[in-house]
């Protein structure tokens, strides 16, 4: 089955890594660790949109052997912005290419559904840019705000592509970690039938699985009220039942000297449904975190005892969390 690839999520470039020198230092570490894929976006970082792409362009990341992927820029706030209109896609690509200093990206991410633009128009515009060589693959993702079922929308999009001989998406990006596993039953059958890969984001549940956040202790974390996504993350991870399940898991891990971060990363790399061709997107706000993540994975597979405990944890949470895709 093989193991998934590791992808560096560049949302912190332009914020935590704010200078050319600090970005190059991060890239040097990624090279050392054999991580060659970078996921950026025109909306990164959240506090200074576009600076992530600009800095990657200024240091010439693409010319250093990195495979750069980017998102279609959300032109408005909120769900249903019209960002997958043909003109919006073209404008977003032009801006990204100029910032990155490239004329092609590896994967173009469609970050969230656009219910205001007909699917055929979306698919045709993407197909035109693919034929022109603007990108090698299309990735479909889903936002927390979307009221549309991801499996249903994905199937509809694929059908439109097949009926019109348009290039089909080859990657789906979704929320996946040891406490968020709905994709295993809802999406994997569709992906397998269409030879699509899965890229997992929030492998550490926005930091929740590191143990740095618990109910009532959100200051300075992504769960704080003043964080742009604080309320959304609170809704995902603040339920008392979830808090109790994670504390119980931590009680199993502590005598084994395994941190929540390490267990989470070893589980998703060695024991999850991901395999060769799939990917895990890992962000970091400092170089030490990049190294720590890889060190955790390098510890190898977990014991059967820990794997079974993780399975039991999901069994307790599945009814409440299987809809998060």
TrEMBL record:
One of its GO terms (molecular function) is oxidoreductase activity. InterPro entries: AKR_Detox_Biosynth, NAD(P)_OxRdtase_dom_sf, NADP_OxRdtase_dom. The keyword Oxidoreductase applies. Residues 6-313 form the NADP-dependent oxidoreductase domain. Gene3D superfamilies: NADP-dependent oxidoreductase domain. Keywords: Oxidoreductase. CDD domains: AKR_AKR7A1-5 (cd19075). It holds the Pfam family Aldo_ket_red. It comes from the Eukaryota. This is NADP-dependent oxidoreductase domain-containing protein. It comes from Botrytis porri. The lineage of its organism: Eukaryota, Fungi, Dikarya, Ascomycota, Pezizomycotina.
């Amino acid at each position: 089955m093989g193991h998934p690839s590791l992808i560096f999520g560049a949302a912190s470039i332009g914020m935590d890594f704010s200078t050319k020198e600090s970005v190059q230092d991060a890239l040097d570490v990624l090279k050392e660790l054999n991580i060659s894929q970078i996921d950026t976006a025109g909306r990164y970082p959240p506090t200074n949109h576009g600076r992530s792409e600009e800095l990657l362009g200024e240091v010439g990341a693409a010319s250093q052997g990195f495979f750069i992927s980017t998102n279609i820029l959300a032109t408005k706030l909120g769900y249903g912005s019209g960002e997958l209109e043909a003109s919006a896609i073209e404008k977003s690509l032009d801006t990204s290419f100029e910032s990155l200093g490239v004329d092609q990206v590896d994967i173009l991410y469609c970050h969230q559904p656009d219910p205001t633009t007909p699917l055929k128009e979306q698919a045709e515009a993407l197909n035109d840019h693919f034929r022109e060589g603007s990108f090698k693959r299309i990735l479909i993702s889903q936002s927390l705000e979307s009221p549309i079922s991801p499996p249903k929308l994905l199937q509809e999009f694929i059908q439109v592509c097949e009926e019109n001989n348009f290039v089909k998406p080859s990657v789906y990006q979704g929320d996946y970690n040891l406490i968020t596993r709905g994709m295993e039953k809802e999406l994997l059958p569709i992906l397998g039938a269409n030879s699509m890969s899965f890229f997992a984001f929030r492998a550490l549940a926005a930091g929740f699985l590191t143990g740095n956040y618990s109910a009532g202790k959100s200051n300075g974390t992504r769960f704080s009220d003043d964080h742009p996504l604080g309320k959304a993350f609170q809704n995902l991870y603040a339920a008392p039942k979830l808090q109790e399940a994670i504390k119980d898991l931590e009680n199993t891990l502590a005598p084994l000297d395994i941190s929540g971060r390490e267990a989470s990363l070893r589980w998703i790399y060695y024991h999850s449904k991901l395999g060769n061709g799939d990917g895990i997107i890992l962000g970091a706000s400092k170089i030490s975190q990049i190294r720590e993540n890889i060190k955790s994975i390098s510890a190898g597979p977990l014991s059967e005892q820990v794997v079974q405990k993780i399975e039991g944890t999901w069994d307790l949470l599945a009814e409440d969390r299987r809809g998060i895709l």
